[in-house]
Automatic annotation (TrEMBL):
Its cofactor is Zn(2+). This is L-threonine 3-dehydrogenase. It is an enzyme of class 1 (oxidoreductase). It comes from Catenuloplanes indicus. The gene is tdh. Keywords: Cytoplasm, Metal-binding, NAD, Oxidoreductase, Zinc. Belongs to the zinc-containing alcohol dehydrogenase family.
Amino acid sequence: MKALVKERAEPGLWLTDVPEPAVGADDVLVRVRRTGICGTDLHIRAWDGWAQQSIRTPLIVGHEFAGEVVEIGRNVTDVTVGDLVSGEGHLVCGKCRNCLAGRRHMCRATVGLGVGRDGAFAEYVVLPATNIWVHRVPVDPDVAAIFDPFGNAVHTALSFPLVGEDVLITGAGPIGLMAAAVATHAGARHVMITDVSEDRLDLARKIGVSLALDVSQATIADGQRMLGLREGFDVGLEMSGHPSAMRDMLANMTHGGKIAMLGLPSQEFPIDWARLVTSMITIKGVYGREIFETWYSMSVLLEGGLDLSPVITGRYGFRDFEAAFADAASGRSGKIILDWSN
């Protein structure tokens, strides 16, 4: 089968032929139809410091996918050949304290699809049936392919109550855009999103945010005044990983405000801890999705009319992966989809 492989410890990816994966008794074999390009895939392709420490070559990359079940293991009973499925890319041990308590998203032994084991940028992928999400209601395959990052957005956005609240989102990348769509759909009063890319801010406006603010031209405090806020934002969703974004968010929260932080900083940085204490602000770190409660929420949100189509800005055949990755790395796009159906 064809697959995108990190063959060597150097920049680049290679489209090559590899053996089809074997199917174990508890596994599901999926014929991949669509995949989404993630920031993690960009790091691996660029072979940056993180990738050099985290990746062992050769490796089939990719973890965002949707496809059709073509074979199930003999012990699998709740997945059927022909099902349209997506996959939870965090494979957990099932034995640690958190796993046994039903908190699988907190497993300390998590292995990442396309990072710690061969991934989904291929014509076929195998996963344990416990990592398979069956789409029981109709969903566009492009949207099904981005359930993984959509789950990050939902997990972050629904960390705190949003109805009637004023929400600040720092970072209008694809996950920030999806979080903005969720917050708006879930009943926030105002949703303000910040970035320095006018292309991505335009995408946010199509989603329907209250204010898309270019922070190279105006401050978050300016945004507060534009929205008529008197006491600051109630909920903050930090999606960028930039130190200045987190510090500016803290400076513009109301007393008792709550922040969910998904953005992953590249290094340690200081914040104003005195402000955090005296303003009684809560900060919650978010990683991945709650397995599978977040997935249920995602499906229900889509059933309820949430539209993610503006977030998907590029579609390429898998043989045009170089152009697709260049688009995803441009800093101007939303989600980029690779089509594996032909």
